[in-house]
Fold this protein.
Amino acid sequence: MAARKKVVSVVGARPQFVKLAAVAAALDETGSEHVIVHTGQHYDDRLSDVFFSDLGIPAPAVHLGIGSGSHGVQTGAMLSALDGALEAQRPDWVLVYGDTNSTLAGALAAVKLHLPVAHLEAGLRSFNRVMPEEHNRVLTDHACDLLLAPTQVAVRQLAAEGLAARTVLVGDVMTDVCLRVRDGVLAAPPARPAELAAHPDGDGDYLVATIHRAENTDDHARLARIVGALAALPLPVLLLAHPRLVARAAQAGVELRAGAVLPARPLPYPQTVAAVLGSAGVVTDSGGLQKEAFLLGVPCTTVRTETEWTETLDDGWNVLAGADDVLADPARFAALVRRARPAGPRGTPFGDGKAAHRVTDALSAS
Ligand code: UD1
């Protein structure tokens, strides 16, 4: 970065820490002043601290300690606390990441203080207005001064919304981190997860699953259908259970330990990459994991009716299997959870693993 800038990163939830790892390292290389503000949206060690330690991210300078709550309460508390935190820093840029309530609160807090604000992972759309993340994305993009787009698809979407002049294509910073961690895992593979090791068929093929989206966890009948479909799969299913899934399943009276399903705690990032690399396939509703499966060359089945990462659907690396009638028919669902890897090379729609340097260049140029 030619002109050294002061950047405040506002983060709070697990996928943001992965993106932050790439950006923090790139900002450090340029000698920029970088202040990390953690909203506290995620506070469990497995969802927060392990990402900082495993990915070598400096500890947050400011921790707002907001925690969980309804969307309004959580977002409002962050907005209120960010006022003072950002005012005290007066950075050249506030940088917000992804599509969580922490993203929207960071963007709103910055514009209200007339601080320049940039959105990393701008331009993604699911066009599903039931998702809280979709509102967070749209509102954040339209509030921000600089839109750092991960893909050509995102660039085109921002142009269609009249935002081309603020858009820069940088590539996907999660790809930077995923490829780096993959290389480390291949050099020194961690042990198989204990839940698999303890299973009678645990030394054979297995699937990795995650389910945490509100639209999948908060409707009792839908959650029961999803767990039923996972339970009927023909391979052990290592279900890395987000606390939201555990809480909602308990409320709904849905037993996660059913059939093929092996419930496990969320894994740290390197162990997640290793578990995916060693698996026959991924079943998920996570945006990040769909992309990581693609990058790691593992077939993915997405328990949603749409995806923001549409490039993963090309050539059959990812398949959508979230319709209610599919989930209600375990044989149909199982047929979509295929193991065969598509023939032919995968493209590189998410960039070359050097996106974070383009982020620092864009911040210094503006
Ligand atoms: C949030 C993001 C979602 C992202 C996900 C990654 C929003 C609207 N959603 O969803 O886009 O994919 O993070 O994980 O911002 N909880 C804990 N411990 C924690 C955090 C949460 O037990 O450290 C439980 C609480 O019961 C909480 C629930 O999980 O109410 C939901 O947490 P919240 O941060 O509101 O949303 P996520 O589902 O994690």
